């Protein structure tokens, strides 16, 4: 009898351990809250924010947003690159606004979107029309450009709001199309 109940306990512990990472039902992390609907809603909001809908910043990003991790940015002046320092929700909004400022059209198209638990990955194409403003860019104002990237968003398991963004984008392609110097080896 004693042997029997220990065995049942062991079986039940094993099942719990095997199940929780897959269905996201880990009560300690509240991951059960992050449904596909939540992920889709936040992904739509994220693209909408980049479309210039700045009002939804606080219903998309957590006040505890920590960091936009991304590749180093060429300065566009031919003297190397700078590290991203976007480390707060307000700084992220300013980053979006700075990005949009040089373009008269700035439209992200979602190519594919993937989600699991509290993480969303969005593969995008940016279709933009250059307005002007980058000091050494030779692209004529009014010309269009297009390049690709993938943004991965981590959501706070309790609120469902974005706490971290990892962005991998083809910056060499962007600067190439802008005709801006990135320096040479
Ligand atoms: C977002 O919240 C901050 C406070 O953290 C506030 O200063 C700002 O006005 C809010 N922005 C919008 C668009 O609601
Ligand atoms: C590049 O040159 C600009 C203008 O002279 C300067 O402000 C900036 O600090 C330089 N950046 C690097 C990474 O050397
Ligand atoms: C972006 O990716 C698409 C495939 O999704 C490809 O057809 C296109 O050439 C890429 N654009 C650039 C500028 O590399």
Could you walk me through the main structural features you see in this protein, from its secondary elements to its overall organization?
There is one protein chain. With 185 residues, the protein is of the alpha+beta class. The chain has one domain: Nuclear Transport Factor 2, Chain: A (Roll), CATH 3.10.450.50. It has four helices and seven strands, in the order ααβββαββββα. It has helices at 2-23, 36-50, 89-101, 171-178; strands spanning 67-70, 73-74, 81-82, 103-116, 119-130, 144-155, 162-169. The strands form two sheets. It has a five-stranded mixed β-sheet with strand order 1-7-6-5-4. A two-stranded antiparallel ribbon has the order 2-3. A hairpin with a 2-residue loop joins strand 4 (103-116) and strand 5. The longest helix is centred in the N-terminal third of the chain and has 22 residues, at 2-23. The radius of gyration is 21 Å and the shape is elongated. The termini are far apart. Bound molecules: 2-acetamido-2-deoxy-beta-D-glucopyranose (3 copies).
How many strand elements? 7
Task: Output the number of helix runs.
Answer: 4
The chain-level mean pLDDT equals: 86
Hey, roughly how much beta strand do the residues contain? 25-35%
| Helix/strand structural class | alpha+beta
List descriptors.
185 residues; binds 2-acetamido-2-deoxy-beta-D-glucopyranose; 7 strands; Nuclear Transport Factor 2, Chain: A; alpha+beta; single chain; elongated; 4 helices; 5-stranded mixed sheet
